[in-house]
Amino acid sequence: MVAAPAAASIRLTEGQVGEVAPGGALIYPGVTSCLTVTVRLQDGGKVGAHASLFQVPGEYRSDRILAAVKQRTGARTVRAVEVRGAVGAWDPSYFTKAIESYAEGERVPVPAGPDPEGLARAVADGLGQPRGTVTVEDLPDGDQRVD
After folding, report:
1. Most exposed of 62, 95, 111, 141 (fewest Cβ within 10 Å)?
2. What are the residues whose beta carbons fall under 8 Å from the beta carbon of 54, sequence distance 6 or more?
3. Which parts of the sequence are annotated with region: Disordered (predicted)?
4. Residues 16-51: pLDDT tens digits?
């Protein structure tokens, strides 16, 4: 888990949370079935998370990653929250109950299609932000860079 102070540029791999100072860039490598969550702070800094459908050992599960972002953001003013990536692969409930937490025989929700509104609501709720601050964008596989 990334816990270093704000930097000029950082790479966030699956399950990681980190922060960059104003003018810095968040780099999310290899976004395939993942979602990225970027919180743009009023001072120009950014807090980011690379949310994965399945937990990477030693990193945050999908149902814990928003709490880590919220803790990192603290009481600072949020200008906007951007959610990007494999929107169609995610059920909004994965932010409250990770796929790994289902018991054998329990039905894991499978998205019937993209639900950008549901994802926006789940992220807004998880971060304690108004729904209007959150945008969702389905992006093709690949690296993402947020300047």
Report:
1. 141
2. 99, 100
3. 125-147
4. 999 999 999 999 999 999 999 999 999 999 999 999
Q: What is the architecture, at CATH level 2, of domain 7-141?
A: 2-Layer Sandwich (3.30)
Whole-angstrom distance, CA of residue 96 vs CA of residue 133: 20
pLDDT in tens, 74-83: 999 999 999 9
Cβ proximity of 29 and 66 under 8 Å? no
User: Strand pairing of 35-41 and 142-146?
Assistant: unpaired
Among all chains, which residue has been given the structure tokens 């596989």?
141
Has residue 105 got a pLDDT over 80?
yes
According to the 3-state scheme, what is the secondary structure of 107-120? CCCCCCCCCHHHHH
**Which bin fits 22, alpha (ψ -120 to 50), beta or left (φ > 0)?**
beta
The per-residue pLDDT for 7 is 59
pLDDT of residue 3: 46
State how far the Cα of 45 lies from the Cα of 39, in Å rounded to an integer.
Answer: 8
Model confidence at 8, pLDDT cuts 50, 70, 90, reads: confident
